[in-house]
Amino acid sequence: MASRSLNRAILIGNLTRDPELKYTPAGTAVCTFGVATNRSWTTQDGQTKEETQYHRIVAWQKLAELCGKLLTKGRKVYLEGRITYRTFTGKDGQQRSITEIVLDDFIVFSDGKRVMSDEKPVEKTSTPEASATEVAVTPETSTDTTGTENVSPDDIPF
Fold first, then answer.
1. Element (H, E) at 64
2. Where are the domains of the chain?
3. Among 15, 132, 152, 124, which Cα is nearest to 73's?
């Protein structure tokens, strides 16, 4: 019997650029964007240091379309996904490797302003990871900002 394993990445950070939504030749949506996370600490001599890590995020299918609609540069987000590694040969003939997080779920943090869409407030959801001023977006219970589309588990192709 094979033992179980887990590949899970959880991040809270800010988008470094607007999401880029594209479609494969087969029509599958894919969205890529970057997220920066910060860490600060105090050294033994009392100096405060800060470090920033940059992460490449990839979303597929319906989740990719939601990312393209809801996310913008600078927004704070909570992300869940799995780490993947890819290698490819660049245009210069050099072998390159990329580490990515394939997105499974995300929550968009509110900027503190009331979000309005077609004169109706956007539904706000509170979760253990989110305060009352955040908009939760999950594949199971999603509301896009136009208020015209709800995603149910039956609509998710994976």
1. helix 61-70
2. 9-105
3. 15
The domain defined by 9-105 carries CATH number 2.40.50.140: yes
The enclosing H or E element of 11 equals strand 9-15
90-96 contacts: CB < 8 A, separation 24 or more? none
Encode the chain (158 residues) as per-residue pLDDT tens digits. 678 999 999 999 999 999 999 999 999 999 999 999 999 999 999 999 999 999 999 999 999 999 999 999 999 999 999 999 999 898 899 999 999 999 999 999 876 655 444 434 343 333 334 433 444 444 444 444 444 445 555 555 54
Q: Which residues contact 3 (CB under 8 A, 6 or more apart)?
A: none
The CA radius of gyration of the chain, in Å to the nearest whole number, is 18
For the chain, helix, strand, coil in percent to 5 are 10, 50, 40
Angstrom distance (rounded) from CA 32 to CA 60:
9
CB 59: neighbour CB atoms within 10 A?
27
C-alpha span between 74 and 108 (Å, rounded) = 11
Query: Residue 9 and residue 124: Cα distance in Å, rounded?
Result: 24
Question: Which position has the token pair 């908009």?
Answer: 135
